[in-house]
Amino acid sequence: xxxxxxxxxxxxxxxxxxxxxxxxxxxxxxxxxxxxxxxxxxxxxxxxxxxxxxxxxxxxxxxxxxxxxxxxxxxxxxxxxxxxxxxxxxxxxxxxxxxxxxxxxxxxxxxxxxxxxxxxxxxxxxxxxxxxxxxxxxxxxxxxxxxxxxxxxxxxxxxxxxxxxxxxxxxxxxxxxxxxxxxxxxxxxxxxxxxxxxxxxxxxxxxxxxxxxxxxxxxxxxxxxxxxxxxxxxxxxxxxxxxxxxxxxxxxxxxxxxxxxxxxxxxxxxxxxxxxxxxxxxxxxxxxxxxxxxxxxxxxxxxxxxxxxxxxxxxxxxxxxxxxxxxxxxxxxxxxxxxxxxxxxxxxxxxxxxxxxxxxxxxxxxxxxxxxxxxxxxxxxxxxxxxxxxxxxxxxxxxxxxxxxxxxxxxxxxxxxxxxxxxxxxxxxxxxxxxx
Amino acid sequence: xxxxxxxxxxxxxxxxxxxxxxxxxxxxxxxxxxxxxxxxxxxxxxxxxxxxxxxxxxxxxxxxxxxxxxxxxxxxxxxxxxxxxxxxxxxxxxxxxxxxxxxxxxxxxxxxxxxxxxxxxxxxxxxxxxxxxxxxxxxxxxxxxxxxxxxxxxxxxxxxxxxxxxxxxxxxxxxxxxxxxxxxxxxxxxxxxxxxxxxxxxxxxxxxxxxxxxxxxxxxxxxxxxxxxxxxxxxxxxxxxxxxxxxxxxxxxxxxxxxxxxxxxxxxxxxxxxxxxxxxxxxxxxxxxxxxxxxxxxxxxxxxxxxxxxxxxxxxxxxxxxxxxxxxxxxxxxxxxxxxxxxxxxxxxxxxxxxxxxxxxxxxxxxxxxxxxxxxxxxxxxxxxxxxxxxxxxxxxxxxxxxxxxxxxxxxxxxxx
Lengths: 436, 417
Ligand SMILES: Cc1cc2nc3c(=O)[nH]c(=O)nc-3n(C[C@H](O)[C@H](O)[C@H](O)COP(=O)(O)OP(=O)(O)OC[C@H]3O[C@@H](n4cnc5c(N)ncnc54)[C@H](O)[C@@H]3O)c2cc1C
Ligand code: HEM
Prior knowledge:
The complex is a heterodimer of chains A (436) and B (417).
Chain A: H1 2-8, E1 14-18, H2 22-33, E2 39-44, H3 59-62, E3 81-84, E4 88-92, E5 97-100, E6 105-107, E7 110-113, E8 117-119, H4 125-128, E9 133-134, H5 139-149, E10 156-159, H6 163-174, E11 179-183, H7 190-193, H8 195-208, E12 211-214, E13 218-223, E14 229-234, E15 239-241, E16 244-247, E17 251-253, E18 265-266, E19 269-271, E20 277-279, E21 285-291, E22 296-300, E23 306-308, H9 313-327, E24 341-346, E25 349-355, E26 362-369, E27 374-381, E28 384-391, H10 397-405
Parallel strand pairs in A: 1-2, 1-7, 2-3, 7-21, 9-16, 10-11, 10-16, 11-12, 19-22
Antiparallel strand pairs in A: 4-5, 5-6, 8-17, 13-14, 14-15, 18-19, 20-21, 22-23, 24-25, 25-28, 26-27, 27-28
Helix pairs in contact in A: 2-9
Chain B: H1 6-11, H2 20-27, E1 31-33, E2 39-41, H3 44-51, E3 56-57, H4 72-88, H5 99-108, H6 113-132, E4 139-141, H7 142-147, H8 149-159, H9 166-177, H10 182-185, H11 188-214, H12 220-225, H13 238-254, H14 256-269, H15 271-279, H16 284-294, E5 301-305, E6 309-311, E7 314-316, E8 321-324, H17 326-329, H18 364-381, E9 386-387, E10 407-409
Parallel strand pairs in B: 2-8
Antiparallel strand pairs in B: 1-2, 3-5, 4-10, 5-8, 6-7, 9-10
Bound molecules: flavin-adenine dinucleotide (FAD) and protoporphyrin IX containing FE.
């Protein structure tokens, strides 16, 4: 019995983790906790030890915490080699080798891919290169943005009203900077939360003093002779004078280094099976390799096996830990089925969500009311609950998470405290949608 | 015993000293229907889930009905109005959102960091004084001589209730706390007594609040009466204010006493840990969390199902009375290994000592400081404490459970450090 266990368990050899951030770190820790005693190497292209990103658009921008103060605590003594500041540039699965940017290679017995995603840059490279045009993904981006905000720019223009765009807008208002927020959708966050909730977010941002422009796009950015951005021309013909632009157009998954590896990896992420093993282009799992966090695309059992790639902090932790156990041979082939969960805070409001709103055909305000500024919205698809989102009412979410996991009929919870007459609304998602 | 009768046995005073074997039996059915129609929830998972479920209501008190006096003016005009006011302005522990949230927020705004921390130092001094009084004793009653006076003084000072009025409260608080015992709710006489007490304490509070409005001081009642919450939002009307003040006073009187007494009992029964605490006072915070798990002051709270709830393979029907058996969840072997062992070194103690969810105890930080001050001083100063009665006599409550007296024989009290 004992020897069989020892056989199945991977307690030695060399495990390489590429991507030294949240999912990579938590994966490495789980691997050790599961008894892996071999060599462990973490490769990360950023020069920093793993740190936390959520504060970067919130407290690190407003100055409540310094960007350097976001280092992630080590939950478990790792005993690992850190290769920081060097990117992985290629993967040879036959030779079981990872190529690094400094020309060296690392051979591995097990590999965890946790390269996450990066901010999508402004599509026109010349305009993107103007001084004063920023994106926000890493700690250095946050430091640069904070520095640019300090002298009091004329106006901050934020392109894209997704979560990061909205958070940056609220943080800039907290610093009393003039802000314009532009999005082609009908309302901020409408792509993710639907139009009725988007309208509430719009009202919140207007109340914060954000100059919100919905249903329009930036056509181009213009610079002065010194190469500094000075204005944006909108598609509707309007002009916004600005000297600081934050491009918040979502994220692109870091999979380029995997091209030629035979893995099914592309802009949509690294395709995995239910357990989290990476699949090759023929759809066969490579059992020496797992992926986790923003970069992984996997069939989610709670959503009928639909492939999803989640950009959520909690998911990076849970899937990272699952992948660590999987590579250690502990979580053998068990499906990863963590309930997706996300939070955001902007303008003093905390938004939390469980489940996935994608595909919702109906929604109700289940508890509280928009008027009070605290409420829970539940989303349904084909008569089942699929997601719930709370504004300053997170305490109810666990109950809804259970309903979602149980595929309870929609609307799920009837006759709750603080409940209003339930009116089923249409989420009215704009055409192109992404998950929160 | 049949499962459907186990909760009856929990309420039976004969089982007060050790209800835990009954809880273990109850946990075999995470949510079990009792013969009288009450649903008892006893596992950690099921309690957690219901504490966060919006279909669970805390509005469990039966409608107030003041007893007939024979005076038609009282019976037909005054008392029905009073009943109506009582029914619509219950203390927020018995209320649901959104009213609960509004009231709780206003009260929490008065539990300022500064005030609570000031009480930390104050607790140390009070405990030192109370123990000094025992310096010549060979035995004393820990409940009457320390566990009770400490939290009472603290809550009176926090609220701004004059200490000379305290003796009046003792009886009132004990009477009102009995509203948490299910058997008293069904008992007409007990209910009538409760209403009379409530009216008496309300009259007192109304006078005190008037006084605070005229001469505001740096205390919670003055802050609440001034009518502003933390964000400058309007606070609460007078009837809600009185109900909240009474809630704080009762909560401050009737719970911490049990934590200190239960902890002392456990420590005297585990002399190795008592000795360790004396030399290692930093152990106190963890030890107190373990106490709140191992033998908490509040054993259960009641709720009502607003609609049918499917849980743990059973459907709780709409309108059913529910008992969340917090002290049983605290001993659930699915969450705590070796749950019946008192072990302050236990990692990750997710106890229900202070409840959970939206009614999570408002006074938790205060209670922790008070218990810490008391237990460290007891460990360091009592010389060779022994229990005179083991088990000690318990107070009658099954929900608010703790020793009525805890007589200790001692070989002296060391001077204060
Ligand atoms: C500003 C901001 C705010 C956010 N706020 C929230 C929030 O409020 N709530 C929430 O749930 N989520 C939030 N998120 C999302 C959350 O931070 C991410 O989901 C999480 O960081 C994903 O972790 P990860 O480890 O998968 O990927 P990442 O954190 O992206 O880490 C991947 C790492 O791999 C490195 N890397 C990439 N390519 C290579 C390579 N070829 N070789 C070596 N290393 C490489 C990257 O530089 C990076 O360090 C926020 C994200 C940002 C950027
Ligand atoms: C050891 C001491 C204490 C214990 C074990 C304790 C325990 C609890 C528990 C279990 C609840 C939850 C009730 C429910 O869910 O229905 C609660 C609520 C409450 N407690 Fe405490 N308590 C203690 C001390 C205090 C003190 C000192 C105060 C006040 C100063 C206080 C004030 C309150 C209030 C106001 C509530 C109601 C909160 C709400 O409904 O939102 N408690 N307490």
